[in-house]
Structures are given as structure tokens and as C-alpha cells.
Amino acid sequence: MAVVTSDNTDKLTSLTANMASASYHISNLLEKMTSSDKDFRFMATNDLMSELQKDSIKLDDDSERKVVKMILKLLEDKNGEVQNLAVKCLGPLVSKVKEYQVETIVDTLCTNMLADKEQLRDISSIGLKTVIGELPPASSGSALAASVCKKITGRLTSAIAKQEDVSVQLEALDIMADMLCRLGGLLVNFHPSILSCLLPQLTSPRLAVRKRTIIALGHLVMSCGNLVFVDLIEHLLSELSRNDSMSTTRTYIQCIAAISRQAGHRIGEYLEKIIPLVVKFCNIDDDELREYCIQAFESFVRRCPKEVYPHVGTVISICLKYLTYDPNYNYDDEDEDENAMDADGADEDYQGSDDEYSDDDDMSWKVRRAAAKCLDAVVSTRHEMLPEFYRTVSPALIARFKEREENVKADVFHAYLSLLKQTRPAQISGMSDISPSLRVLLQVPMIVKALHKQMKEKSVKTRQCCFNMLTELVNVLPGALTQHIPVLVPGIIFSLNDKSSSSNLKIDALSCLYVNSHSPTRFYLSALVPPVVACVGDPFYKITSEALLVSQQLVKVIRPLDQPERDTFDASPYITDLFTCTIKRLKAADIDQEVKERAISCMGQIICNLGDSLGDDLPGTLHIFLERLKNEITRLTTVKALTLIAGSTLKIDLRPILDEAVPILASFLRKNQRALKLSTLAALDILVKNYSDSVTPAMIDAVLAELPPLISESDMHVSQMVISFLTTLARVHPLSLAKIGGSSILSELISLVRSPLLQGGALSAMLEFFQALVGTGTSSLGYMDLLRMLTGPVYAQSAALTHKQSYYSIAKCVAALTRACPDEGPAVVGQFIQDVKNSRSTDSIRLLALLSLGEVGHHVDLSGQPELKTVILDAFSSSSEEVKSAASYALGSIAVGNLPEYLPFVLGEISGQPKRQYLLLHSLKEIISSASVTGLKLYVEGVWTLLLKHCECAEEGTRNVVAECLGKLTLIDPETLLPRLKGYLLSGDFLKTLEDPDLNVRRVALVTFNSAAHNKPSLIRDLLDTVLPHLYNETKVRKELIREVEMGPFKHTVDDGLDIRKAAFECMYTLLDSCLDRLDIFEFLNHVEDGLKDHYDIKMLTFLMLARLSTLCPSAVLQRLDRLVEPLRATCTTKVKANSVKQEFEKQDELKRSAMRAVVALLTIPEAEKSPLMSEFQSQISSNPELAAIFENIQRDSSSANMESMDTS
């Protein structure tokens, strides 16, 4: 029968194509829907469904009416399958028909929802949910959604009010909750009537009705106005104070907890009234009520961090009390015979204790579970109280690891895990008194003792919790368990061998082993290797992959290569097992990618540490590696494994595969995958170093051919690896470098030297390379040849180099070459001196010559050159600023090469030449920065006295240099000099400088503070209470600092306070990273909010802060969301005046982008889009094409950035 239909449909489709008439096709389907055969009706409805899903479909009014009527009729079809399909059609139908048709649909569904037949009621309520789900969201501002919701709301409130039929009530409440959740913002006018309809249901005799009412109220408070919210809270508070019956009191407490979970940012101001009531109800002997009270506390702690702060102590003590609340069970008898039990391993009878006491009416476990969860919330949200937690909460949780109810036990473990996660070192810098990690260490013995018993429990869940706990312990405190390994290993092996263990349990046990597999595990190898090997053979890929990681660690433990002389351990019994299980996984082609990669890494480690014991298996295994190199999916891992093997101290014989491998590696250098290029260069480097006798010239040529494109300033890291590889070649295979002169490698290198971006590691690599290259004695690449290539363009005068930085790099290379060729050096130095003297030299020649002299003099004593001092001092009076500064750098640098000769000379000049002080002080700064501490110690006093004379100099520039010199000098002998430096701050107190009447002093003080907060947060953590008021004070705009300046016909406003405000906001940004736990976030947000309305630079900073805050403390940001959205919206909708300059437009664009980034970050907070203002702003964005485009771009970028950060790990 279906066949006929599909044939017909085919004919129909061709007809449709010919006649291009959708309505004909549809009327045909409608006709079939009236057929008496249910299969016909089903197929026709199905075809209609696919028609409706096409975007192209357009219905005329008549077809619309017929389709709607038909679908509504089919909702009452006798056949259930047809009914289900008809409901599904409603979704696409709503968006295809006109508004009044949607209203017809909704009307019919609402009427049917109250019908007598249960099946019809059910299908209609599903229909309503489908329609609500299909309506465009509130943020799109569509009129359709609003009118439909108004229609439904009236019908629903009357259905909810009817108490006769509970099932209708429940459905109506469910739909109401759905609608409030998705479209609550559109119903603002109905909120009061919805509220008055919902409140009476809280006392309904049916608990299911109360429960759904609470859910609906939870969704209502997210979008309702303030008046409705106040009504609701006042009602709940007055009912709670009356406390008519236990049953309603429970419901009201549950309701408050639900409101707090959904809209914690609104309930905060009522906590002062709510918490005492909840505390009171905790003391009533009713387990269910207690559970709800503690759950309410949990939601307050998580959702109203600021307002709950004064009550945290109370909450903790209540939780600690009820964590052990188990009135029907006696634990005392266990502790006495604990030791006996460990001794004779009588664990079996202990395990039986789970079931005997399970008492069905005992609800106390729910109270204990709520207490554990609430403690979890406290610990996760208040990391400033860590020391307190370790004193009180930690011992209490450890003592409850013996909990008899498995669900509760899991939550106790989870709470302890949260405590450990809070202790991770990253989050805490410079806490006062003993460090949190030390506190953990003190509790480790207690933890191990408590877990030791649990690790052989029957329950899989418990054992899994134990492993997670041990793994986290080692993450927080590496090495914490080293002494306890003997106690723990048997427990781990128990789970690996146990038949009843689930795969997740085995994975957790293995990862626990992995983090603990350090040296002490050697003594258990005989016990550990068999279960791990068995896991490598496990059919489930995740277990295999984890077991391979552990095997790789075990190989390192069996035979550590870093201390061969101490190695008396016999590894032979384990080698065969480990090798056999790994090679089996390495050979398999049809396994999971992660297993492939880990098998390669593990085998790499085996060959690296045990390759000399593999005998005949080695060449074959290496050939498998060769195969894996040729496969795109495994090549990167294989390159890393080969690098490991090539670097092994066992000198593994790689000759069988080198001929084939090197050309393959060379080909990887042109692949567009950065990680692969970097790993390949590292592999080639170590191969050339350790296998120079087996690497043939042909192989090297293949690699050299690929290098030129990789040397470029666009990727300095890759360039640096290439240069290091070339340096290795020059040292090991000097002959191969004869070719690089002819190829473009050298010209690429020379142009890289001229790049302004060359610095740091890449520059050092370049200098090493030139020294190695000139050392090879290759013809046409001698000292003078290279020198000409480097300095050619400067002397040719064809074009000056665009960047000053390039002169510095060239000079460093020249000096490196000169140091490598001491015989030819002096002549060149003489030539440079002549170049500086020569009046015909261009500024750029002088510049290069001076810098080169400085760089050479830094390492070689140039005091033998009699003219040097005068030549350099003459350059101090050059007309070119750049030549002057090069001369001052050169003088300082040369002085480092011979302090006794030059330092007194420089000091004398500073005293005798007031006009040149600024330049001479720069020379002095260079000396203090670069000379060795021991050499300088003799001169410290003289230099210090001289510097102090110049502290009061009138020029700010000179004062700044003096300050830098003083700071750097202090570091040479901090014990004596730091107290002196403090003495000169007249008040002797940094804090006073923040109150200094002089604006500039305050600004510099803030800059200093920022630097401290960034680099040494521990210095300032305890000062924050006093500093923050001054800091916040500087973020305010001061009218008296704004002045008007006349520039010709224009008036221009200048704000002298801008720089200090900027410094203050920069400090605030830094504090977010280093001292978050010491800030009152709400006070902080007040000033961020002001910054959002300030000058361009400050807006940009506060936008960044908002994005940071959204991830660091989302709940606080959520409480302030409405006040933060407004300035963002203002920024995005500001128009630049039409006649403004181009920069104004660019600035405004930048601001918009930045504001949008903040908006995207705010929207990552789960409840943000439910704020009415935010959703209004979103609809504004989506309706403005320019803003919508920016918004989409940023969202795309941020999601791809997240993916990247996952990749790089």
C-alpha cells in the first residue's frame, strides 16, 4: 500500500514541477487525509510535514485555512501515530501561516486541553508546548509571539485555578512554566494576574501541583518587574512567619530556594529577613524540612555571594552539625578494631554492613546529603576562607568518608574534591600564615587512612571517588602521596583485577596510578605490571589508552636514563610483557586514534629506555614507525617519538630507517601545520647531532631545499628552530654549508637580521649561527664576506634601513663574528672608529659603527684603542638624536668590557659635563644593567653618591633615568641599599604617596602599585584595605582638571586627570588577576560601571574588565547586569558626527567592537539573556545589520578561540 502512495507521490512531484502549483499538491494531500485507511492518512500527513519544512513553500489564504483545519482535526484521529505526526506538523506550520490562523490553532488547543478525553488533553498540551517552542524568542521583538502568549495566558490561568481535575492543572502549570521560561518578557502586563493565579496553588493538597507551581514561579521571577517580585517575596515571608502547617512551610522554603536559584541577584536584599527564619526551621525535628532548609542555604551561598557573607559562619556550623546527623545508626564500634582488621585483612565481613541497616523510613540521609552539598557550595565560592576550611571543614569531611549511604558518600567526596581544587597553587599567591598546600600536607595521613579502607569496598562508585580524590591530591600537591604508596598500591591493583569493576572505574584507577607512578613504585612492579598489561589488552579503547600512558610512565621508572650509575634494578622480567602488549596495539590499524597515538608514544619510550634489550625486535618496530610517519593522522606523534628515540643515551641504531625517514621529514617542512613543522625541525636537529655519520649529504640537501620559506619574520619561533638546525649542521657537518651561500637560505637569514621583530631567542640563535658558520672556514663565507653581507646596505647608501632596531641586530651579529675571529677583529674595530670620525659618513653609517663598537667592546677589552673615548664623546654632539643615543649606548657597553678603565671616566664626565648629563646617565644605566655584580660591587658607593646629586634635576627625563639607575643599582646590593632608598621617601611610606597633593606623584605611585600587583602580588595583598579607597578615588572624573585650550579658531578640551584615571583602571585590571579574593566585587563593579561612561581609553579598559569579570565572578556581574548593559548599549548606538575626521570613525568602530566583545562575554553567563534589558539590547543588535555583523564575527572568533585552546593542550 505504501508503495502505491510513493508512486503517486512521485507522479505528483513531477506534476508539481510542471504546474509549479504547491496548492494543488497540498489539496491532494488533504484529500488523502480524509481516507478511511490509516496508512494513507499517515503517509499524507508525513508528506505534508516535509512540504511545510521547505523554505520555499507559500500558501494562499484558502490553503492555509484548509491545512490548519485538517491538522487540528487529525489531532483527534483514532490512530495514535497519525495524532503524533499531526502534533509534529504544528511546529513548522506556526511559522508558515498568518497570525490569525495561529490564533485559531492556539484557541482550539486550549479548548481541547480542558476536554473530557484524556488522550485528547495530552495531545493538545503537547501541541501547545510545540507551538510555544516554535515561536520566535522574546529578543526578536516579533508581534506574533506576544499576541499568541496573551491568548494562551488567559486560558491557562483559568485552567490552573480549576482545582477539580489535577491532571489538567499539572499540564497547564507545565505549559505556563515553559512559556514563562521562553517568552516571559512578553507577558509583563500579565505577570500580576499570573502571580495571583499561582500563589494559591502552593497550598494545593497535591504535592505534584505545588512542585510544578514552584517551577513556574522560578521562571516568572527571571523576567517579572520589581513590584511583582516584591509581592511574591512579601507573601512568602508572611506565610513563613505564620507557619500554619509543616507541610506548607516546607513548600514555601522550597519555593524560596527555587527563586534564589533562578534569580539570586534579586533575592539578595531580602536575605536578612529570610535567613533567620530558615535557621529557625532547621531546629525543628522534621527531616524533610531540614533538607529543604539546607538546600535553601546552598542556593543562597551560590547565588547571593555578597549578601550571604555575614551568615556564612552560621551556614557552615549548621552543615557540620547535620553532616553527621544519623540518629538510627551507631558508628562507634568500628574505630576500635580498625588495626586488627588491617592486619588480618578481614574485609569481607566489613563489606556486608551496607545492607543490614538500610531502613526504609529513615530520611536522615537526605539531610546529610544536603549538608554535604551545601558545604561543597561554601567551599567552592569562598576561597578567601581556605585557612578556616582546613581547620574545621576538612577534618569533618574526612571523618565522614565512612558514610554508609552511597549517595551521601559520593557528595562528601565531591565536597572534599572542591576543597582540593580551591587549593590549587595557581589561585593563591602570597597568602599570609601557612600556605594552603602545607595544610593539605598535614591532612594527607588522615585522608589516606580514611580512603585505605574504602578502596576495597564492594561499591564501584565509592572506589571511583577514592581514585578521583587521590588523583586530585597529587595535582594539588605533587609528591603528596610518595610515602603512602605502599598502602595505596594494593587498593589500586584490587580494582584493576576485580571482575566487577566498571570500565570507568578502571580508567580512574589507571589515571590515579599514572599521577602516582614516580620512583617509589619500583618495589611494586611485579604486582603492577601484570594488571596494567592486561588493561592494555582491554577491548575498550579508553582503558587501553589510559593503560598505555601508565605503561609509558612505568618504563621510565623501570629504567631511568638520567641516573645510570645508581641503577642496579633488573628490568629484564618486565620488558617482554610491556613490549608485547604495546607492539600488538602499535601494529593494529583498526583502532581508535588516541590508542594509536599513545601506542606510538609508549613504544617510543620503550625503545628510548630499553632499546638495548630488544635485540631482533628493534628493526621491525622501527619499520612500523616508518609506516606511521607516512600516515597523515599519526605522523606528528611519530615525529615526537622519533625525537625521543634519537635523543636516547642508549644510542639506538636508527640506520635501518634513516634513508627513508629523513626525506619524509624534509617533506613535512612544507606542510601547512605549524606543530608538525616545529616537531620535525626538532627531530632533524637531534638526528643530525647524534647520527652525523649516518646522515648522507643527499639527505641534508633534501632538508636544505625546504628551509628558505621557513625563515621569515612572520613566524619567529619556526625561524629560530631553523637557525638552530643550521647551527647544528655547521658544527657537525661543516661541508654541507658550502651550498647555503648559493641557495636563498643565506639571503633570507640576512633579511631576517634586518627585521625589526628579531629579538630574544631567535636573535641569540642567529648570533650562534654566525659564529658557527664563520668557524667552518667555508670559502666565500669567511669573516669579511659575511661582514660585507651584513653591513652592505648601510654602506651602499642606496637606501637607509627603515628600522632603528635593525641596526642593533646587525651590530650584534658583527660583534658575534668579530669575537669568533680574534685575528681579524682589531682591523675592523679600527675601521669602525674611522667611520665614526669621518665627516663624510652618513648618519646611518655612524649609527651602525657606534653600535658595533659597543657590542664588540662589551665582550672584548677595547682600551687599547687610544682614540675611542674622544671619538665617542664627539658623537655626543651629533645633530642626529639616533647617533647620540647610539653613542651613549656604545660608551656604556664598552665600559662593561673594562670597568676599571672606563667607569671612573664616565663618572668623571657626568660630574664635569652638565650639558651631556642625560646621555652620560644613559651610558651609566647600560653599565649597571649589563656588568657583572662582582665587578660593580667596588664602585657602588661612588655611583650611588653621584646619582643622588642628580635626583633633584629640573628635567623630568633626567630624573627618570636617575630613578632607573637607582633601582637597578639597589638590586646589586639590596641588603644595604633598599633601606636607604626607603629612607629617601620622606614619609618613608609608599601609601602616603597615594595621597600626595601632586597629581604626577600620585600617578607614578599608582604605576608602581600596578607593577607590584602584577609581579609580586604578595607585597600588596595585605595593604589592599588601605590602598583600595585611594585607588577607587582616582577613578573619578574631576571637573577642576578639565580645561579649554584655544587652538586657532577651535576650542579644545584637555583633561589633565585622564592619565591618572587610566593608571587607576589599569591597577584595577591587574588586581582582578592577582588578588581577586581580596576585593569586594560589588564595590569594584561600581567603579567599572563609572568607567564604562568615561573617555575612550578608559572605556576600552573597562570593556576588557567586564569580559574578565564575566568568567571570574559571573554571579556578581549578573546581579548588576542591568546597570552594566545600559552604557554598553549607549556605546554601540552612538553616532559619530558626519563631518568628523577619519580617526573619530575608527575610534568609534573600535569601541563598538570592544563593547560587543564584552556583550558576548556577558552572554556566556547562563542567566544573562533572561534579563529584560539584555534581551531588549539583543533584539536591538539583531535588527541593526552593522551591529549584528560585528556580533556574529565576535561570537565566531570566541568559539574558535576556545577550540584552539583545547587543541594546544
From TrEMBL:
Domain of life: Eukaryota
GO terms under biological process: SCF complex assembly
Pfam families, per the entry: HEAT_EZ (PF13513), TIP120 (PF08623), TPR_CAND1 (PF25782)
Record's keyword annotation contains Metal-binding: no
Residue span, TATA-binding protein interacting (TIP20) domain: 1019-1181
Family statement: Belongs to the CAND family.
Record-given protein name: Cullin associated and neddylation dissociated 1
